[in-house]
Design a protein that fits this description.
alpha/beta, 10 strands, about 35% helix, Rossmann fold
Length: about 300
């Protein structure tokens, strides 16, 4: 996979042979609690696909199933011919699936280059002994990995920061390093867990542009969980909406914004007697979703976030 930094489009997903990601009837239970209930949707190759929902919707649970952190109780997730469900994270990574985490998981004392090289580890074939003795094969391989790291760093505007310890970078740059390290694994499917969480408006704008550049230049599929609805609606090709573990909408950003179920999930219906799954009646106009926490009563033991419900 080559990185084209000229701004022109790179190979398409079809040209690269990237398969769809298919989520088929996925259910996750933790005891009596169903964090996900029969969720199904498809991520088309080479697209940006967003997963959104109010707090406690099951977004993080679904992402954790995709990346092998959690196991599905029922259903499966397929990436082409490969079934990801119940595989360990390192085996999923070998299938060219990479994840950038919401909470930055970098080595703060090491340089940007050293952190990015960690993403190349599973692509290294020279053994420890060959590398230690600096045998020609190991030296050539190290040079190739170093070149690739520099290309990806330049692509994400980190080229002038390769020798700087990650811990002294701004928060926005650290998030970009997290994405760059995921790209260093050469993925066909990139999972971005809240890539702009905690960023200011300028950092958010740069990250949104970077996500589109990754899609266009590399032709890979990108699935993201994000709370910034302005960013999501601006870059996503398709949006899946979860609410209390159920899929309530799946479509283009415009379709999702105008969906009555989505409006109820985010803003409330204003009618105590209205069924949660009602779809009859006049279609409401679209709204700008802001993903504010759902107004609910607080009761002992009642989960209020994805992590709490898990």
């Amino acid at each position: 996979m080559s990185v084209d930094t000229s701004g022109s489009s790179g190979p398409t997903a079809l040209e690269r042979g990237i398969p769809p990601l298919e989520v088929q009837g996925v259910t996750v239970r933790f005891g009596a609690l169903a964090a996900l209930a029969d969720v199904s949707f498809t991520v088309a190759p080479g697209t940006v696909h967003a997963i959104i929902g109010p707090n406690g919707a099951g977004k993080s649970t679904l992402f954790n199933v995709m990346s092998g952190v959690y196991r599905a109780t029922e259903g499966e997730i397929r990436f082409g011919e490969n079934v990801l469900t119940n595989l360990r994270p390192h085996k999923i990574a070998k299938l060219r699936v990479a994840r950038a985490f919401q909470n930055i998981a970098l080595s703060s004392g090491q340089s940007v280059a050293e952190n990015l090289m960690l993403g190349r580890h599973h692509l290294t074939h020279a053994g420890f002994l060959a590398a230690g003795l600096r045998l020609p094969r190991a030296t050539r391989e190290a040079e190739l990995h170093g070149k690739r790291v520099r290309e990806i760093a330049e692509f994400l505007e980190l080229g002038d920061k390769l020798d700087i310890p990650v811990g002294v970078l701004s928060y926005g740059d650290q998030k970009r390093v997290e994405v760059a390290r995921a790209l260093c694994t050469e993925p066909d499917l990139l999972l971005l867990d809240e890539p702009v969480a905690g960023m200011n408006s300028e950092e958010t704008r740069r990250m949104a542009a970077a996500v589109l550049e990754i899609r266009d230049a590399l032709g890979i599929s990108i699935v993201l969980v994000e709370h910034d609805m302005g960013m999501v609606m601006g870059i996503a090709d398709r949006v899946t909406v979860l609410d209390f573990g159920r899929l309530i909408a799946d479509g283009t950003p415009a379709e999702v914004q105008a969906d009555p179920e989505v409006i109820r999930a985010y803003l409330g219906s204003g009618d105590e007697d209205e069924p949660a799954n009602a779809t009859d009646g006049p279609r409401r106009g679209s709204v700008q979703l802001d993903d504010a926490p759902r107004p609910t009563e607080t009761s002992a033991g009642a989960p209020s976030t994805d992590e709490d419900r898990a």
